[in-house]
Amino acid sequence: MTSPSLKALVIGLVIRTPLIPLLVLASFVPGFWSVGNLRTLAESVSIDGIVVIGMTIVMIAGGFDLAVGSVLAMGGVAAIVLLPYGLLASIVGSAVFGGLAGLLSGGFVTRLRINPFIATLAVMVIVRGATLAYTDTRPVVGLDDTFLALGGGYPLPYAFIAMIIIALLGHVLLSWRAWGRHVYAVGADERAAAMSGLAVSPIKLQCYGLSGLLAGLAGFLLAARLGTGSPIVGDATPLTAAAAALIGGASLRGGQGSIPGAMAGLLFVGSLVNLMNLLGMPSYYQRMVIGTMLIALVVIDGVLLRLRQR
């Protein structure tokens, strides 16, 4: 019998996402399979990949997190600001600030019963505004050699290795731990989960806190790659993360999704963007393509729901 993890991986790579056909078509684009381009692809998906893991967990729990892009920017700025106090303080500070922002989103959702889209939209605006105010809209620069080295790595970027490790931990947490089963139960039917004795609000709060923590950590790694903490990065991150999670099998209704599937969705989105770059497509057209794809995914998700209900 195929194990659940392997089954999820097969579904993510072959059935749910057109990843394999895309990679076959990529063979006809000169330079896609070159070592340099593959390293560029690994580097480009690594930051978003860490965010996607947190977004997927929140979506499985029946939520959504629009604030991840702003939290990523805040994490990068925090990393640079705390760098004079040591590398550990920089890493921990980015993660803690991100986690606090996630808990704020979760608090709005669970305590004040605000719709997740509205709650995280509010946190997105608050965090972005606070980051812009603190930096006076200017990037902050970090020149520590060890810090900058973390933004590199050869043959694989360190950020890509970090993404793989976090993805494995996330998969274990969701698939082989009771907490993961509780997250799926809460997302599938919140009322039934509460009636069965699960602490629904704390579980959802933990999911949002974890999403924020991972977004802050991603901001640290992005700042290490760029050598700066920019208050304006990450505006397209929620779009990319949501598209990757939905392509990988997550649902806006909750209770569905997996980390292997989300990673397959991320690889699809990253490869698509990479191909568009190789073909010389301007970035604004790329965002239009991703946005259209996201709308299509939501529509398809709704159609499948109606078909199952008949």
UniProtKB/TrEMBL annotation:
Q: Where in the cell is it found?
A: Cell membrane
The UniProt entry lists the main location of this chain as membrane
For membrane topology, the record states: Multi-pass membrane protein
Coiled-coil intervals in this record?
Answer: none
> Per its UniProt record, what Pfam families does this chain match?
BPD_transp_2 (PF02653)
Key word Protein biosynthesis present in the record?
no
The UniProt entry, under InterPro entries, shows: ABC_transp_permease (IPR001851)
Keyword field: Cell inner membrane, Cell membrane, Membrane, Transmembrane, Transmembrane helix, Transport
Positions of transmembrane segments = 6-33, 45-64, 76-104, 116-135, 155-174, 205-226, 259-279, 285-305
Per UniProt, subunit arrangement is: The complex is composed of two ATP-binding proteins (LsrA), two transmembrane proteins (LsrC and LsrD) and a solute-binding protein (LsrB).
Q: What does this protein do?
A: Part of the ABC transporter complex LsrABCD involved in autoinducer 2 (AI-2) import. Probably responsible for the translocation of the substrate across the membrane.
Which PANTHER family does the record associate with it? ABC TRANSPORTER PERMEASE PROTEIN YPHD-RELATED-RELATED, AUTOINDUCER 2 IMPORT SYSTEM PERMEASE PROTEIN LSRD
The identity of this protein, by name, is: Autoinducer 2 import system permease protein LsrD
Q: Which organism is it from?
A: Mesorhizobium retamae
